[in-house]
Amino acid sequence: MKKKSSVDFESCITAAVLVIMLTLVFLGVVSRYALHFSFSFTEELVCALFVLLGTVGSALACKRRSLYTLDLLTGAMKPKMQTIFSIITTTLTLLAALFLFWTSFSMISTQFKLKSLTVALRVPAWTYTTAVPFGIGLVIIRCIQNILQDVRKLKKLKEEGEAQ
User: Which residues form the Tripartite ATP-independent periplasmic transporters DctQ component domain (predicted)?
Assistant: First the structure.
């Protein structure tokens, strides 16, 4: 039997982004205090990477079912009701993610039309904004996976209840 690995796509991305962010911040601090020169582009890149880290981190939390918990409420429920509650809350998360996904494309479109450039590197602003639909897209995928798992679990619990 193959052991399931805890390393996944989202974990790799969040780890890489965090290392890059820490390196950029470290270089910025060293340049400011040791060289008396500020690399302004590091702040810009770190802000852009922070958005990516937040959205992909949300997808990772969704996959691990740790976005939010109401243990006080769900702990008192029977397994069937816990699963129903999970389907409802995950569906609400999915709806919010779909809304953010849709509005992020509107924001990218506006930035593209206005030909907005970033302050330090003078690159198109929409290139940084693409991190939002990328990360939120992963959240949507993980929510759908969780809902499908819960529906299968609910069917299994129903079958077990009928068999008893």
Answer: 21-152
